[in-house]
Design a protein that fits this description.
There is one protein chain. This protein has 315 residues and is mainly alpha-helical. The chain has one domain. The chain has 13 helices and no strands. Helix 2 runs antiparallel to helix 8, helix 3 runs antiparallel to helix 7 and helix 3 packs across helix 9. The longest helix has 31 residues.
Amino acid sequence: MTMQMTATRRGILALVLGIAIFSIQDVILKLLSGDYPLHQAMVLRSLTALPFHLAIVWWFDGRLSTITTPGWWKMLLRGLLNFTAYTAYYLGLAYMPMADTVALFFTSPLFITLTALVFFGERVSLLAAIAVSMGFAGVLLVVKPGADGFDLAAILPIIGALGYALSMVVARSMGRTESAAAMAFWGNICFLLCALALSAVYGSGAFSGASHPSLAFLTRGWVMPGLQDIALMSGCGVIAAIGLTLLTYAYRIAPSATVAPFEYTFMFWGVLWGWVFWGNLPDGLGWIGIAIIIGAGLIVIRAPQKEKAAPESAA
């Protein structure tokens, strides 16, 4: 009993620390979004992360052969879902306040519930169904469709949450045969390939000139960065690899249903960094919407395992 409690506490600590580290990547990419394209940052991030991911595979799986299983191409396709999810998220982050972007992305547990119902036919309790409905009501308070300040970029983090949810559902079915470390490795490979593809289209700058921050972050051509900015972009790779290691460790040694709610500590960092770096804080309705989304997500995550499995981070 004591050993289990100790492992659970270590898992919670690892997850909270991993979330804090991941939040720094969001700050870096938002700071860079006004001068560089997202695909350039992703290329440097993925290249830097590659050796770290190989080390993670060796550490967790004890051998590198787990990345060459017959299901490697399925892991690569799952990486495409994650790439779509995080591209949408970071394009939204280029325009939106950090706290709002993070809050909208954390509708992912609600989408996981819906996709598990559709694809696996899992039972959903009445309480979980009510929580999902409440969660999307919270989304409306944050997004404020129809308001004067509404921008379609607010939909991007929600698209990201849906893509992330789908990737988690796929990971759940693949987890019987593939390791989390191997899935993360192929996810990083997919990030690199997709970022290179975007760079081939937009890297020359032929489509640059968009005035909207989100669109400019996508279509801007490659820019020769200074040493500091190279370090920041490359640092995202180190951050992603270390953060992933901590999250994978957390879910490996502690019950998912116990540690998953602590992913919402990301909201603390989203609010803090948004205030420190950009002076942004949610308005009254925004705070209410964020509270509703978090509350609904926690209810869904804490639902009994036979009704819904808690989402595990393997992105």
